[in-house]
Every structure is written in structure tokens, then in C-alpha cells.
Design goal:
It contains no helices and 16 strands. It starts with a strand and ends in a 5-residue tail after the last strand. The strands form five sheets. Strands 12, 13, 14, 15 and 16 form a five-stranded antiparallel beta sheet that branches. A four-stranded antiparallel beta sheet has the order 6-7-8-9, with no helix packed on it.
């Protein structure tokens, strides 16, 4: 059966799929949680997103491949992560061996660098712009949350069918 579906993502790292044509439907077609969100108090008491930060960026959908790509910020065993998830549009199940952890380095002497290397800081960085799917690459953009240093502008690209990183760019490697 073909149906119109609305997908809802939350800062609690939950993703829901609802039947968009059934106003009486109160239950989701499916729901998944992508891990524990980061408490706002962990981010220097930033009050931009309270009480937690999880999925902020608008996901991107590949209708041909039946996949919704979602970026989630998590705190797991005291460590912070950004993860790219590829979820099946019909079931919410992970695809392509996902999720993958967004991570990387760029050479430079910018804020927070060590020994000439800037390392992506999952606690200080935040993914606010919507994800982009272009030419089989999913792009994610990051910048600081609450201007809490150290942070940089980062752009990552991941192959849409195997979730391997294809590119990384740091906008401020030396400043």
C-alpha cells in the first residue's frame, strides 16, 4: 500500500514515522531512538537547546533508495559522539552497517589544535544545517554551539550507500 508519511525527529534522538493521511492515527508506523542525547549542562550550561541536544539538523531522504539519513549527537559511557544513521524508510532499521561516527582531523594551528592538528570535537561541535544528499554523498555541516570554544566549521561527506567518509573540510584550520 502506498501512503504519505511524515517523519519527525527530536532532540531526544527519537525518529518517528506517521501516516500523514490518517488524522485519527495516534500511533507511529515505527519509532526508533538513536542513543542517549547530550544533557545541556554538559555544554557549558548553554541554554540554546534545553534540556538536551540530540537531533537538530533536518534529515535528508533518498526516496529512490528508501533511506532517511539522520545525524544524532549522543553521550555514551561519558564520551560524546556525532553519528550518521541511514534508516530504512519503511521500518526505521539501520542500513549499510550504520551508524558511523563522524570524526576527523585537519592540519592547522587553530583554536584547540595540538601539535599542528585540529581534531573534530564532538562535545563542542553542533550539526544545525540540514543534511544534503548530492551525487550519492551525504553532507553534514558543523559549527560551535553557544560559541563555546574550541570549535571550527567542519564539512563531512559520506558515501550514501556504504557510509564511508568521502571528504572532510575544516573552514578555520589556522584561526
Amino acid at each position: 500500500k502506498t501512503r504519505n508519511v511524515v517523519y519527525v525527529c527530536t532532540e531526544h534522538n527519537s525518529v518517528y514515522a506517521f501516516d500523514a493521511d490518517d488524522a485519527a492515527a495516534s500511533n507511529a508506523l515505527w519509532q526508533v531512538n538513536l542513543g542517549p542525547a547530550v544533557p545541556a549542562v554538559d555544554m557549558n550550561n548553554c541554554n540554546e537547546l534545553v534540556p538536551e541536544v540530540g537531533i537538530t539538523a533536518t534529515p535528508v531522504i533518498d526516496p529512490t533508495g528508501g533511506t532517511i539519513y539522520v545525524a544524532a549527537k549522543t553521550k555514551e559511557s561519558g564520551n560524546y559522539f556525532h553519528k550518521l544513521h541511514a534508516l530504512d524508510l519503511l521500518t526505521g532499521h539501520e542500513k549499510f552497517g550504520g551508524p558511523v561516527t563522524v570524526q576527523g582531523i585537519a592540519l592547522g594551528s587553530g583554536d584547540g589544535s595540538v601539535g599542528g592538528t585540529n581534531t573534530f570535537n564532538a562535545l563542542h561541535e553542533h550539526n544545525r544545517p540540514g543534511l544534503l544528499l548530492l551525487s550519492n554523498v551525504v553532507y553534514l555541516c558543523y559549527a560551535g554551539l553557544c560559541d563555546w570554544p574550541p570549535y571550527h566549521g567542519w564539512l563531512f561527506g559520506y558515501n550514501a550507500t556504504n557510509l564511508q567518509r568521502t571528504c572532510i573540510f575544516n573552514t578555520t584550520p589556522d584561526g
